[in-house]
Amino acid sequence: MAKNQxxxxxxxxxxxxxxxxxxxxxxxxxxxxxxxxKALAGAGAHVVxxxxxxxxxxxxxxxxxxxxxxxxxxxxxxxxxxxFAADWHGDLDLLINNAGVMNIPEARTKDGFEMQFGTNHLxxxxxxxxxxxxxxxxxxxxxSTAHKVPGNPRIHFDNLDLAREYQPMTAYSQSKLANLLxxxxxxxxxxxxxxxxxxxxxxxxxxxxxxxxxxxxxxxRVFMRLGNRLIAQDSEAGALxxxxxxxxxxxxxxxxxxxxxxxxxxxxxxxxxxxxxxDPATARRLWTVSExxxxxxxxxxxxxx
Length: 305
Known about the structure:
Blueprint: E1 22-26, H1 31-42, E2 46-51, H2 54-61, E3 67-72, H3 78-86, E4 92-97, H4 115-131, E5 135-142, H5 168-192, E6 198-202, H6 218-230, H7 235-238, H8 240-247, E7 255-258, E8 268-270, H9 280-294
Parallel strand pairs: 1-2, 1-4, 2-3, 4-5, 5-6, 6-7
Antiparallel strand pairs: 7-8
């Protein structure tokens, strides 16, 4: 390398040949999910778009060059999660827990859970554990810098649904904190079971997608639209931390995000998490509660890849 020449930031061109590998991506019909599909399929992987609306999934798949298929998955319905997992046969190299809802008005999943916690965390918790006997490489779960916004985000164990004090941003922050605690405890359990499978997390920074368009607050929607134009990365840049976590040789429980100011944009790199997201005792407690709520448990060690 010439003197004073800096290495190029990591990009999709650095993806290895993924021929023969299979990935499942939740929420894959738009935004970062669809961009991730295109990148992995373009590198040779067979990619399953796990989506709530198969018609929208098929429409999105038409714009992907590579081997893809569409399967129905509604993370807000545990019966749908169980059906998806029961229909899976054969190895699965990558599970990417990408789908999510953000700052929405108060709502409930089909099973009665607060929608953001139920979709972003519990749905993925159940899906991951049900698919785990098939997974051969890693699980990548999308979190957010919202897990450490001012106000000391925490898991409200005494009121997970926030039924008495629902605030959209509080619910979203709780769900994104849960994603990181889930990754931490999943990695601990995998290592304890002697599995080579790794659990990692990523966040996209501020990426311009349709996720912000469902915010419960009109003023926040206006602010988000402005931010999408002036600050945000596009979905291609926003997907880089996910892709980096999918293929780089990283330690289990790693957290990947952009390297720019406030982690809003930039090249993918390892980033820090809050103290609350690093607490193993809270991670174990959340895991136990999640098992009780979903009825899904960590597979017996002999069944883990």
